[in-house]
Recover the amino acids of this structure.
């Protein structure tokens, strides 16, 4: 008899404990360190190049309108031993393109990467074309990769005498594994004794939480928050002088992220995005719509019989202005984002009107959040 009573008592105590747990902790948003920071030195590098795409089915550049395509074609033929100086070259199967790529971090010589190809002249489509050997340059002007291969596009263009159909963008394409890396970027990650973690969304609280999580896991003061965007790591003893081992151990740690309260507004599309920490004080809002209607009803005026008058058009404009007034609506002080959204939806207004209302509430000092207009 004692055991069933003891079980019931334990169940009651456990249930009360779960009820008393903070709701925010139960639904806290946590993320891995590797998903919220960038490691210093582990980054891509942008490359760009200029080349020619050949093999187009009459959809290339018109050489008269694209002199750079003609010059590039003649220069390429001369390097291959074909002299076209003074000749009138006519072809619609060649297009000048810009080639872009991102050199991956620690890309080794001989490995491959994807490239994007975009038409530079008045080419109609790159479908069926092949990119010729194109050097890809970095910001320092050095060649880091060579691109070549058939171009794959996602769109197409079909036309007849009286109609044209275009799907997607046929003047851009991609070459999978189309570039061969020729030069490596010299950076030895494993030999570093100190490294910085750059937060993708800078925040003081998040930086401190990252440092606390790392130090608790390692057991020694290894991480130090320097500013809202940077946490410095110092290689502790016991990792054989290799910081890669340290990064491998800490990048899976879970950290609860934090951000400032922010409202992002795109006035062109009427999109409004609110963060979970947006709060508003109790405020009364009134909103009215002004509708102006203008109608033109011209009338024809005839002259009197046997007179020298002429028939004329008499303009007639009907102008009407209506203002639908609305009473003051109270948006109660919100505790959660859902309560704030429910209060604003109760006003029954459109998203574009809501943008103006949010800006007015901010001007009144009742909105505890930043407003960012895209």
């Amino acid at each position: 008899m004692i055991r069933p009573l003891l079980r019931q008592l334990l169940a009651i105590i456990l249930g009360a404990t779960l009820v008393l747990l903070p709701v925010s902790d139960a639904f806290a948003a946590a993320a891995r360190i590797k998903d919220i920071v960038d490691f210093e030195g582990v980054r891509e590098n942008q490359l760009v190049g200029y080349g020619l795409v050949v093999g187009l089915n009459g959809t290339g550049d018109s050489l008269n309108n694209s002199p750079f395509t003609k010059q590039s074609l003649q220069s390429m033929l001369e390097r291959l031993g074909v002299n076209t100086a003074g000749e009138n070259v006519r072809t619609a199967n060649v297009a000048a393109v810009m080639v872009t790529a991102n050199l991956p971090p620690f890309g080794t010589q001989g490995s491959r990467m994807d490239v994007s190809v975009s038409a530079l002249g008045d080419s109609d489509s790159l479908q069926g074309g092949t990119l010729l050997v194109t050097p890809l340059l970095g910001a320092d002007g050095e060649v880091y990769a060579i691109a070549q291969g058939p171009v794959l596009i996602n769109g197409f263009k079909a036309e007849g005498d009286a109609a044209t159909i275009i799907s997607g963008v046929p003047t851009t394409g991609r070459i999978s594994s189309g570039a061969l890396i020729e030069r490596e970027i010299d950076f030895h990650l494993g030999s570093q004794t100190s490294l910085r973690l750059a937060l993708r969304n800078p925040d003081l609280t998040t930086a401190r939480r990252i440092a606390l999580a790392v130090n608790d896991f390692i057991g020694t003061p290894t991480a130090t928050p320097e500013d809202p965007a940077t946490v410095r790591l110092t290689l502790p003893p016991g990792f054989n002088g290799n910081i890669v081992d340290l990064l491998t151990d800490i990048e899976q740690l879970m950290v609860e992220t934090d951000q400032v309260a922010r409202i992002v507004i795109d006035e062109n599309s009427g999109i409004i995005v609110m963060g979970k920490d947006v709060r508003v004080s109790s405020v009364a809002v009134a909103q009215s719509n002004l509708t102006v209607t203008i109608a033109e009803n011209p009338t024809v005026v005839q002259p009197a019989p046997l007179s020298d008058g002429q028939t004329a058009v008499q303009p007639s404009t009907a102008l009407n202005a209506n203002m639908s007034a609305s009473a003051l609506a109270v948006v109660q002080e919100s505790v959660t984002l859902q309560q704030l959204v429910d209060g604003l939806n109760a006003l029954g207004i459109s998203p574009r009107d809501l943008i103006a209302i949010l800006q007015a509430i901010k001007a009144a000092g009742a909105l505890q959040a930043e407003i960012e207009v895209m």
The chain is about 25% helix and 35% strand. The two ends are 68 Å apart (CA to CA). The mean pLDDT is 80. The longest helix spans residues 2-20.
